[in-house]
Specification:
This protein has 2 domains: 5-122, NAD(P)-binding Rossmann-like Domain (Rossmann fold, 3-Layer(aba) Sandwich), CATH 3.40.50.720; 125-281 and 319-341, Dihydrodipicolinate Reductase, domain 2 (2-Layer Sandwich), CATH 3.30.360.10. 34% of the residues lie in helices and 25% in strands. The chain is built from 9 helices and 15 strands. It has helices at residues 16-23, 39-48, 78-87, 102-115, 129-140, 159-162, 173-189, 287-306, 314-333; strands at residues 5-10, 29-35, 53-55, 68-71, 92-95, 119-122, 146-154, 192-200, 211-218, 223-229, 243-248, 251-256, 260-265, 268-273, 337-338. Strands 14-13-12-11-7-10-9-8-15 form a 9-stranded mixed beta sheet. The longest helix has 20 residues, at 287-306. The structure holds nicotinamide-adenine-dinucleotide and (3R,4R)-3,4-dihydroxy-4-(hydroxymethyl)oxolan-2-one (89Y). Nicotinamide-adenine-dinucleotide is lined by residues 10-16, 35-38, 41, 58, 72-75, 77, 81, 95-97, 124, 163, 165, 176, 289.
């Protein structure tokens, strides 16, 4: 049996706990050290997850001890940390948002490409079971070519308790959760060009927008709407479900609350209830997101081991981040912005 790839996880904050649980289920890999510039956080996660080493500086990447690095810090740190990994030729999986703007994303990609170091963006929503199933239905041809899609994330989660940095983030919800929706839009409906967006700051005192409505025109002539809000009042709270619908030439898929798909085709409808895998460490309401993390990380490791392209490679993700950039520029100017021209 081949030895597991040895990994370093950088950033022992809120979301890293899910990634560390997920790494313990990922075949062919093991986290051998964690790192946080806050030494106490690194020490505490090392103890909780029985990881043999902890460090308070990412410079440990120079040790030659790692086959990959998992970067779970916030976006403004990614350029520097990915560059450090690239300098030491360590393959990278890095959390979304990849970087705050498209120019930074492009610099990261160019630097890694020049050194031929693989980089994948940890984009986990497409690895949720419900979206894997929808992709399967679309691939089966049951509803025909997609003509329209809507992906809607509107909920009442108090996102600021777990992720207080979002209060100060200038490019807020489009980067935080809009980016998941834009990746899903590409995954399900295809690449897009024209983008139109209205953004709102509903909660007082935020540095950025907490709601946005985005209209996309896809290259295959499908249109889609992505709408996101952290300022919605809903009981029960649908967090963290992405709801919506997909219309094709022969049928429709509705994505309903309770992880239900209602599929209309051939003059009939059927319901499919999507069950997440049962894992000891997942819990409501986070289960749907947590459950997708081992699949995301397994894809990274399998691709590193066996070759091929990451589904959400840094390079491919440039198309997703160009859509986000176009959304911000559209919101600023009131114009339709073609992401291909940025
Ligand atoms: P966090 O602030 O709780 O944790 C980040 C940690 O990184 C902190 O402990 C900080 O000290 C450490 N850090 C920052 N710079 C560092 C450096 N240079 N070297 C070492 N340590 C450093 O953040 P979080 O809420 O865990 O979010 C991390 C990332 O995960 C964000 O980009 C966020 O958007 C993303 N996230 C993704 C999902 C998802 O479903 N995919 C969900 C939540 C958060
Ligand atoms: O930051 C967000 C994300 O990426 O997924 C869920 C989240 O943590 C809160 O909405």
């Amino acid at each position: 049996m081949t030895k597991p790839l040895k990994g370093l996880l950088i950033g022992c904050g809120f979301f890293a706990r899910n990634q560390l649980h997920a790494w313990s289920e990922t075949a062919g890999a093991e986290i051998v050290a964690v790192c946080d510039r806050d030494a106490e956080r690194a020490r505490s996660y090392a103890a909780e997850f029985s990881i043999p080493a902890w460090h308070d500086t990412a410079e440990i990447l120079s040790s030659g001890a790692f086959d990959f690095v998992d970067i779970c810090t916030t976006m403004e740190t990614h350029e520097e940390l990915v560059a450090l990994a690239v300098r030491h030729r360590v393959p990278v999986i890095v959390q979304k948002p990849f970087a705050p703007d498209i120019d930074t994303c492009r610099r990261i990609v160019a630097n890694a490409a020049e050194a031929k170091v693989p980089v994948m963006v940890h984009e986990n929503f497409r690895f949720q079971k419900i979206f894997q199933r929808i992709r399967g239905i679309l691939d089966s041809g049951e509803i025909g070519d997609v003509t329209f899609g809507r992906l809607s994330w509107r909920n009442a989660i108090d996102v600021y308790s777990n992720q207080p940095y979002l209060l100060q983030t200038k490019r807020f919800i489009i980067m935080d959760v809009g980016i998941h929706m834009l990746d899903l839009a590409r995954f399900l409906f295809g690449d897009a060009g024209d983008v139109s967006c209205f953004a709102q700051s509903v909660k007082e005192g935020l540095a950025g927008e907490d709601a946005a409505t985005i209209l996309l025109r896809h290259h295959n002539h499908a249109t889609s709407i992505v709408d996101v809000s952290y300022a919605s009042h809903r009981f029960p709270n649908p967090f963290p479900q992405t709801l919506g619908e997909i219309e094709g030439r022969f049928g429709t898929i509705q994505i309903l609350e309770g992880e239900v798909l209602q599929v209309h085709s051939d003059g009939q409808q059927r319901r499919e209830i999507i069950q997440n895998d049962s894992r000891s460490w997942t819990s409501s309401p986070w289960t749907q997101i947590q459950d997708s993390v081992p699949r995301t990380q397994q894809h990274f490791i399998d691709t590193l081991r066996h070759g091929g392209d990451f589904e959400t490679s840094a390079e491919d993700s440039l198309k997703t981040y160009a859509l986000a950039e176009a959304a911000y520029r559209s919101a600023e100017t009131g114009r339709v912005v073609d992401a291909r021209t940025l």
